[in-house]
């Protein structure tokens, strides 16, 4: 049985960040001028982050070295979304590492491999929401909107992390990627909208038992034990600061990256983890509490 705690939030965060980073690496490679340094940064961050996330998933599932037979069952039970998630992570790692090797050999990455990489990145980002939705006992997770929220958050955190590294290692290329300023505004807005929809739908969940748990979950996030993480971590760091930084950059004359941009990138990463942490912990804690 999956143990839902803070550790799984690390898996969800790292998997999403890695998927978003690899997606940016591909888009940067397609941008005019190539942006080879940023592409290489994203191609390294992507598989490393996803591999680290997969490792935490093994730990959280109480599998791996501690119980290899259990992990074997985990990856062969095709009726479980977790199995498909592990397979998706594995395929992503193969594709992303192959892309990295091609780049290290100073060759152009085939367009077909890039397209496959986009599909794999989207699959990994989506899986993080589907994995939670598999547990129907938690109203906050059993919603079709959760995967969309996690996909947008994955893109935001992945783009932000790569941009933060590029701020020091490839700032000239970072300022030449034309779609980034708009993405830095659009992604925080989308995360905020999907989060608002998620909370609104959860709060109006029908059924006597489900309604009690759903209401307790939302109240706990907004004004209860998880309120500080939600408001400071998710809303301020994950949405407000990146949005302000993105708007300032978009409206600036040269659209250059500044210290405010770097602060927005760092805040987006903090907020991305806070989002997954509070969704996992709030749902589990409040649903269990509502049952007593």
UniProtKB/TrEMBL annotation:
* Predominant location category: membrane
Q: What is this protein's gene name?
A: nrfD
Does the keyword Ribosomal protein belong to this entry?
no
List the InterPro entries hit by this protein, alphabetically. Electron_transfer_protein, NrfD-like
Q: How does it sit in the membrane?
A: Multi-pass membrane protein
The protein's organism comes out as Eggerthella guodeyinii
Similarity field: Belongs to the NrfD family.
Q: Kinase: present as a keyword of the record?
A: no
Cell compartments where the protein resides: Cell membrane
Report the protein name in the record.
Polysulfide reductase NrfD
Q: Name one GO cellular component term.
A: plasma membrane
User: Which keywords describe this protein according to UniProt?
Assistant: Cell membrane, Membrane, Transmembrane, Transmembrane helix
**Highest taxon listed in the record's lineage:** Bacteria
């Amino acid at each position: 049985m999956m143990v839902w705690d803070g550790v799984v939030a690390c898996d969800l965060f790292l998997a999403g960040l890695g998927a978003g980073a690899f997606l940016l690496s591909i888009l940067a490679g397609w941008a005019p001028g190539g942006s080879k340094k940023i592409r290489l940064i994203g191609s390294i961050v992507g598989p490393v982050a996803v591999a680290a996330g997969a490792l935490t998933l093994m730990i959280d599932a109480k599998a791996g070295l501690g119980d290899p037979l259990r992990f074997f069952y985990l990856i062969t039970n095709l009726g479980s979304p977790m199995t498909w998630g592990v397979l998706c992570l594995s395929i992503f790692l193969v594709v992303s590492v192959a892309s990295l090797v091609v780049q290290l050999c100073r060759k152009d990455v085939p367009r077909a491999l890039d397209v496959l990489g986009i599909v794999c990145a989207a699959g990994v980002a989506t899986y993080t929401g589907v994995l939670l939705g598999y547990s129907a006992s938690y109203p906050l997770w059993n919603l079709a909107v959760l995967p969309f929220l996690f996909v947008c958050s994955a893109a935001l955190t992945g783009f932000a992390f790569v941009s933060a590294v590029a701020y020091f290692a490839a700032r000239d290329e970072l300022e030449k990627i034309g779609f980034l300023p708009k993405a830095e505004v659009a992604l925080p807005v989308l995360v905020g909208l999907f989060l608002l929809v998620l909370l609104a739908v959860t709060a109006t969940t029908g059924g006597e038992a489900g309604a009690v748990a759903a209401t307790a979950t939302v109240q706990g996030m907004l004004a209860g034990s998880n309120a500080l993480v939600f408001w400071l971590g998710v809303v301020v760091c994950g949405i407000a600061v990146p949005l302000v930084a993105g708007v300032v950059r978009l409206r600036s004359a040269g659209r250059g990256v500044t210290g405010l941009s770097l602060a927005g990138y760092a805040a987006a990463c903090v907020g991305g983890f806070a989002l997954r942490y509070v969704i996992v912990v709030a749902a589990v804690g409040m649903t269990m509490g509502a049952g007593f």
